[in-house]
Amino acid sequence: MTWLDLPADHPFGVAHLPYGAYAPPGDPRTRIGVRVGDAVLDLVGAAVQLEPRLVPMVEGDNLDRLLAAGPVTWAATRGAVTSWLTDPACRPVVEANLTELSAVRLELPFTVADYVDFYSSEHHARNLGRILRPGQPELPPNWLHLPVGYHGRAGTVVVSGTDVVRPSGQRRTPDGDVVFGPTTRLDIEAEVGYVVGMPSELGRPVPLESFDEHVFGVCLVNDWSARDIQGWEYQPLGPFLGKSFATSVSPWITPLAALSEAWVAPPPRDPQPLPYLDDAGAPPYGLDLRLEVRLNGHVVATPPFAQMYWTAAQQLAHLTVNGASLRTGDLFASGTVSGPERDERGSFVELSWNGSEPIVLPDGGTRTFLEDGDEVVITATAPGPDGAVVGLGEVRGRIVPAR
Ligand SMILES: O=C(O)/C=C/C(=O)CC(=O)CC(=O)O
Ligand SMILES: [Ca+2]
Ligand SMILES: [Mg+2]
């Protein structure tokens, strides 16, 4: 029970408590906030008075120190915040450190170290194979054996709300000419991101069972993609400028501890994965998240996350199996989330089938790819305790014209 006046089913209730970085009104210094309902708790401000031993781990302008402090501190911090919100004696201090969410400026919650993007939705991978490589097998020969991925550009990961400038680049026209200019096929990719807290040692692989020793929590990702730039440049080394211009993340990092009701068994795998990827004896690392994609306020897709073929634990094991080390702040994304149904596809290249089947919007407009001024918002929910819902917040971005 909490003394807070929050409906029991609030998506940001006391069972959730995600972390972000924010600046309160009239103060440019950013700090860690915990989202409580539609308010933000100044974590260091409250800790100074209620739990001073936590202060060194929660000081600073973002989550970097807390991420690096490891799972024992993560649990202690979450336990402390939960007790403050449930113990009436703490109420005056908590209330003095709460600010309305609408009044604060949200910042990138952590310093992004390395950014990796996977490709782990079988429905998405098959759709892209059919669209982009007709006449060839839907899946590349490695796809069912390992979680395919690539290293992206950490420095262009931006917080939700940041405008996205339409990128320019080379593309090949249908006539075969190579031209330069603003992309004409600007797309989204609705994804789930995992934030690494505890680093690992160079040379030592991280087994999939060690997932929750290293991963702090989850956010939403929009991996903006320029399909024409991508299609011309990507062979043989993979995505480059077609995706590196911006990747947006949601401002609130949901700790794994808030997702205890959301774990589900992943789909059956055939062929059986090699031992380092075999999760048959491990806890279920699938997550029952439901995503929603809105274009200019209209829901255009509801991708289901529970059916992802490769889980984040397998992705982490694969990412490190060659001895590559993890750094605090590493971000790895699931890959575009698409389900089997037409309205469950997490990208416009799939929703419009490469532009051949425009989406019709309720206002009568149509879309294939994104136009200047379009705004995309991706949200998601997870099951919480006692029938409640955990909200993953939103990742929002608006397209502004090429420069
Ligand atoms: O199949 C392709 O050629 C391209 C695939 C993608 O662009 C998807 C990607 O970035 C990975 C993912 O989000 O699933
Ligand atoms: Ca992607
Ligand atoms: Mg990107």
CATH topology of the largest domain: Fumarylacetoacetate hydrolase, domain 2
Beta-strand content: 25-35%
What is the structural class?
Answer: alpha+beta
At the fourth level of CATH, the homologous superfamily of the largest domain is: Fumarylacetoacetase-like, C-terminal domain
Cα distance spanning the termini = 53 Å
**Largest sheet entry:** 8 strands, mixed
Percent helix: 10-25%
Question: pLDDT below 50 for ≥5 consecutive residues: which ranges?
Answer: none
Integer average pLDDT: 97
Shape: globular
| Distinct helical segment count | 10
Binding site for Ca(2+): 117, 189, 191, 223
Cofactor: Mg(2+); Ca(2+)
Enzyme class: hydrolase
Domain Fumarylacetoacetase-like C-terminal: 116-399
Question: Explain this structure to me?
Answer:
By secondary structure, this protein is of the alpha+beta class. It folds into two domains: 19-107, Fumarylacetoacetase, N-terminal domain (SH3 type barrels, Roll), CATH 2.30.30; 115-400, Fumarylacetoacetate hydrolase, domain 2 (Alpha-Beta Complex), CATH 3.90.850. The protein is 19% helix and 27% strand. It contains ten helices and 26 strands. The protein has helices at residues 43-50, 55-58, 64-69, 71-86, 91-96, 122-132, 211-214, 227-233, 312-320, 348-351, and strands spanning 19-23, 31-36, 39-42, 98-100, 105-107, 115-118, 149-151, 157-159, 164-165, 168-172, 178-182, 186-187, 190-196, 215-222, 225-226, 247-249, 254-255, 263-264, 286-287, 290-295, 298-301, 331-333, 359-360, 366-367, 375-383, 389-400. The strands form seven sheets. Strands 6, 7, 8, 13, 14, 16, 17 and 22 form an eight-stranded mixed beta sheet that branches. A five-stranded antiparallel beta sheet has the order 4-3-2-1-5. The chain has a five-stranded mixed beta sheet with strand order 9-26-25-20-21, with no helix packed on it. It is globular. The termini are far apart. The mean pLDDT is 97. The structure holds the ligand O=C(O)/C=C/C(=O)CC(=O)CC(=O)O, calcium ion (CA) and magnesium ion. The site of the ligand O=C(O)/C=C/C(=O)CC(=O)CC(=O)O has 12 residues, from helix 6. Residues 117, 189, 191, 223, 335-336 line the site of calcium ion (CA). InterPro entries: Fumarylacetoacetase (IPR005959), Fumarylacetoacetase-like_C (IPR011234), Fumarylacetoacetase_C_sf (IPR036663), Fumarylacetoacetase_N (IPR015377), Fumarylacetoacetase_N_sf (IPR036462). Substrate binds at residues 119, 133, 230, 234, 336. Its cofactor is Mg(2+); Ca(2+). Pathway: Amino-acid degradation; L-phenylalanine degradation; acetoacetate and fumarate from L-phenylalanine: step 6/6. Residues 16-109 form the Fumarylacetoacetase N-terminal domain.
